[in-house]
Every structure is written in structure tokens, then in C-alpha cells.
């Protein structure tokens, strides 16, 4: 479900950004607008980013090997992290450089209405991509706020596409403002200022994604609600209590659970094995992402002060 939704959002963004990139480059060649150039590079970077996200989804499905016994699920996090770096370097850094250059050395725009028409069409295409990302993300978001979804989601592609599309929409608006004000005032410096605003916006989005993807790449545990559900399911039947528990996401749909359990006294070996098997079954039914579960029976020794 998560992978299918993420793929649909990625493909929508890929086709939209590819078309937008071509039209923006044509607009830049006609007008010479730095905002158009910055947006062109931004769209090319976004198109490449969607390709990397699709690559990450494909390579993460490889079977586990002796060298990688837990599989390749984290490759989706790795490629999402690379996407964030590309957004920062190709998008933000280039836009800031180009904008500052045009402010220091302003140049008159030629055929600015061509840029306006292209930007308006690009906004419509980007709205389609953004809407697709919102619809697919809403299925996983639940009752969380959008910011909480971006911060807590274990599916990296949807937050990446959401923030990319939001940044693209605002970037197009900034470019439109820059070109429009340059035409109205006759001062091409506004075009450079619009480009700088695009660079700052992309920088903020890129840093946010870098922080979140780094956290996933290092390894995040189950959410509070998932951890509570797992603990409740474990502490049932012949299991008296969970002594301690550790969890970690090995990929968006694969959670590792390791716990030490205190079992009821006097159980035979066969009963211990049955209690462990039943505990694993309960957890998997409640939290399907918990695919790898390692449980160790032990005696509970309360700490005495």
C-alpha cells in the first residue's frame, strides 16, 4: 500500500517536472530571465530526483544475502537522502548564485510575457502533481498533522515528493513575482530577487529533508503507538511482563523487534516455545510491519533499592 501510493506520486511528479523543465528552458532561452533559469535547473533536479526514488524502490526489493542478512530495505532511505542533497546543491545553491549574480549585474528581459505564460502553465502542472502527492499521502497520514506526517513517516518517498512539489509551487510563484515586478517597474533586479527567494526556499526544504532522511537512514524505532501495541500484545498469556524491548525499522515496511520476556514460573520447555510463538503471532497480527521478531525468555529480577 505504501509503496504503491509512493510510486504513483513519484510518477506524477516525474512526468510533470519533465514537461515543466523543457518549457522553462525554452522560456529562459527566449527571455534571458534568471528566475526562469533557476526554475529550469530546479525542475531538472526534481526530475532526476524522481528517477532516484524509483531506483531506490526497485533496489530495496532485492532478497537478503549473507552480506546483508536483513535485506536492502534501507536503500529507499539512502536514495531519499541523496535526493535531499541534490535538491540543496543543484537547486538551492545554483539559484542563490544565479540570483546574486543578476542582482549585481542586472539585464533587461526580452519577451517577458512568454515567461509569464510558461510559468502559469507550469503552476497548473505542478498543482496536478502536488494534488496526487496529497491524495496518496492522506491514506497514510491518518489524524496526524502534515508536519507530523513528514517528521514521523517511515515511507520516505511521500514526504520527499510532498515537500518537493510544495517547494516547486512556491518557487514558481516567486519566479512569477520576480518577472512580473521586473516588467511593471522596469527594474530587472526584481528578477534576481525572485531567484534568491527560490534559492532560500529550496535550501530550507533541502535541509529539512536531509535531517529527516538522515534519521531514517541511521535507524528509527517504532512509533509510541506501535511500541505500546507491541508491548501489550507481548505481555499476554503466559508472558507476565516485557523486561525490555528494542525496535528498529529496517525499511519502510519492515520492523525489527527484539525483546526479553518474563514468563510464568514452572513452564515446561515445550510450553515456553509455545508461549514465544503465540506472542510473535499476536504482534504480527496487530503490527504487520513487525516482520522480524526475536524474543528471549528470562526471569524477571526487580531492582531492589
Count of structural domains: 2
Number of strands: 3
Distance from first to last alpha carbon: 49 Å
Q: Report the order of strands and helices.
A: HHHHHHHHEEHE
Summed up, the helix count is: 9
CATH architecture descriptor name of the largest domain: Up-down Bundle
CATH class category of the largest domain: Mainly Alpha
Low-pLDDT segments, ≥5 res: none
Most strands sheet: 3 strands, mixed
Estimated helix fraction: 55-70%
What's the Cα radius of gyration? 25 Å
Biggest sheet, spatial arrangement of strands: 1-2-3
Query: What fraction strand?
Result: 5-15%
Mean pLDDT: 86
Derived structural class: mainly alpha
List the helices and strands and how they pair.
Layout: H1 2-31, H2 34-59, H3 75-104, H4 112-141, H5 146-152, H6 157-185, H7 189-218, H8 224-234, E1 239-251, E2 254-263, H9 269-286, E3 290-298
Parallel strand pairs: 2-3
Antiparallel strand pairs: 1-2
Offer a concise description of the structure.
A hairpin with a 2-residue loop joins strand 1 and strand 2.
What does this structure look like?
It is a single chain. The chain has helices at residues 2-31, 34-59, 75-104, 112-141, 146-152, 157-185, 189-218, 224-234, 269-286; strands spanning 239-251, 254-263, 290-298. With 305 residues, the protein is mainly alpha-helical. The protein has a three-stranded mixed beta sheet. It has two domains: 2-218, Alpha-lytic protease prodomain-like; 224-298, Alpha-Beta Plaits (2-Layer Sandwich). It starts with a helix and ends in a 7-residue tail after the last strand.
